[in-house]
Design goal:
The chain is of the alpha+beta class. The protein has 2 helices and 5 strands; from the N terminus they run ββββαβα. It has one domain (3-77). β2 and β3 form a beta hairpin. The radius of gyration is 14 Å and the shape is globular.
Length: 80
């Protein structure tokens, strides 16, 4: 696996912060975020179940540029 660090939340203090990576071998985004609270989980469950092994996490909108950078990394390495 080649895991490429993209960025952390630009407003972080360096600890306990949302982070984005891109795994070019698995062709997957890896996201670290804040745990969803029960109210958000309940709203997400309206669209369908959250299976074992999956989670709902939150990352701030200020990370939009970070997500775009991860998408660009995916485009550069995607097997099509």
């Amino acid at each position: 696996m080649t895991l490429h660090f993209i960025a952390k939340d630009p407003e972080t203090n360096g600890d306990h912060c949302p982070t984005v990576w891109f795994d070019d071998e698995a062709q997957e985004f890896v996201v670290q975020g804040w745990d969803a609270d029960e109210a958000l989980r309940a709203r997400c469950l309206e669209a369908g179940p959250i299976p074992p092994g999956e989670s709902v996490v939150r990352i701030p909108a200020r990370m939009a540029d970070v997500l775009r950078e991860a998408l660009d990394a995916a485009d550069r390495t995607a097997v099509r």
